[in-house]
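hey so u asked for the seq, here:
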Amino acid sequence: HGFAERTPFVPSIDPDYQFRKELLSDLLAWHMLGGIEGLYLTGPTGSGKSTLITQVAARLNIPVQRVTAHSRLETPELIGHYALVDGSMSFTDGPLTTAMREGHWFLLDEIDLLDPATAAGLNGIVEGSPLVIPEKNGEMIPPAAGFRFIATGNTAGSGDQTGLYQGTMRQNLAFLDRFWMVEVGYPEPEQEKLILAKVAPGIPEGVKDGMIAYATEVRKLFMAGQLEVTLSTRTLVRWAKMSEFFRPLANQGKNPLYHALERALTFRAEPETRSSLAEIAQRIFG
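ran it, structure tokens below
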């Protein structure tokens, strides 16, 4: 169900990416069944929702049109608009139109930040109806073979109960009813250990275990609303790579692990959170 050759919109392959079996089988089942409904990936920030999509697409050579939603995102940004080209006005397709014309995957990140009225305007598209462009005399674009509509969100679209995500809107139920829902949590410790072994082979086992324990603890506190930052797999990888890089600092009496942690995560946090983050590190690493 993929393509033989790579085209410019195909995401690049991350050789260190570790697929999670159960998520991959969900995604492939949806894809093989023709993706006639949208796919909605929900889960905490940094749990790898978009990366799962882009890495599957990268390996199947599927082009992806990707847009990050925000509260002021309006339909013309997705569909297209008239622009001055070589002295005359011509219509430039937006990412959704391109995906439908060319049979690409359309990935709408942070869909829960979208104004529900804008989301409702996409109802038909998610179900496979043609796109109508009023600005082009009502031109109709039926979805080309291969077109899929995929959304990611930090809440399951029913608004944020935890207060962790600013600006998430309650999406309308008729809209959500058109999606397959897949929940993407943080990876299991064993999976993250495999990732760290690939990206930072020089870090001792015990330290890797400590880093993963640290990540687990920070995530728990984030999910409980006690910290405003979380430690995604992406941040964990950054921390590991930096720890290896800063290893020579040990000769100057500095701790490379703490030095890297500040630059990978701590400096993003509020002052009182920084001291909590330092305390957790102290408890785990001594």
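Residues 189-285 form one domain. The mean pLDDT is 89.
lmk if thats what u needed
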